[in-house]
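Same chain as my last thread, 321 residues:
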Amino acid sequence: MGTIAAVQCADTAAAPQARDIAQRTFQALDNELSAWNPASTLSAVNAAAGTPQPVAVSSNFATILQTALTYCADTEGAFNPLIGPVMQAWGFNGVPRPIRPADEDLAALLTRTRWHDVHLATGAQTTVRLATPGMKLDLGAIAKGYAVDVAWERLKAAGHTNLLIDLGGNLRALGEAAPERGGWRTGVRNPFQSNALVGKFLMHDGEAVATSGNYERFVEIDGLRYAHIMDGRTGQPVTGMAGVTVIAPDAMTADALSTALFILGPQRGVALLRDRPGCEALWIPDTPDQLTLLATPGFATRLTPVGNTPYRLTVVTGQPD
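reply #2:
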């Protein structure tokens, strides 16, 4: 999935088998969901966009897609799994010298991101059809979380009891790191300092954590840096936010929410969380001169400061704008 995978085991003797189970799980799902593999199911769905022929997909693919479309509807298109053509226009396809797309070009591309043009049919065979030519699914904001959940379930079924799965920063805990530890401790990265944390917290058994940030994947155009997280309503890179970390009951939820909340911001983001029990979030605005943390009450009570970097913590409970 174009990222690094790791499984940390409390019992070192169990590590080889655990890593083998996780690796086989991730590879199998990557064969379905990779945007870079021309033989993947995702590539087949995208290649058939605009044709009358639906593409057969697995139950895994259907689950991920249906969940992504639900988040798209719940955020009124801000989180959009069809953002692929817009991402390409901004240069997130490996072009050596990206240029800022013209407004009229973005407007045209946004006509290919209408989620109502995705037809997911279930029955004797599950199929997907993208109705408009040029549409392109991009499941990168949710697929890694789903893969972590599948690996977590398989590892648990195989008898593993105490481990932490990490797929590109998408984490899920099983058991605890050591007896009486109560879980696995992880940190919130300081987006303005390399290899620095602003705080740590304890992940409990079964919990998942995901982070979205503007500091790892970006393009530079005319001296300005643009992050890869796009607002699906406008086709513009999101500005004003440096990072969002989410705690959730499962990794697919954490993965999707970290992107959605990065786009929506704290006020509208809190509204999205109200119907999702067990989910907490922390926003870090893009203000390097004044490190500020905006956290839901449940996140704020669990966060322990790290180091000597001063920051201002505000608990967010407000209504959407």
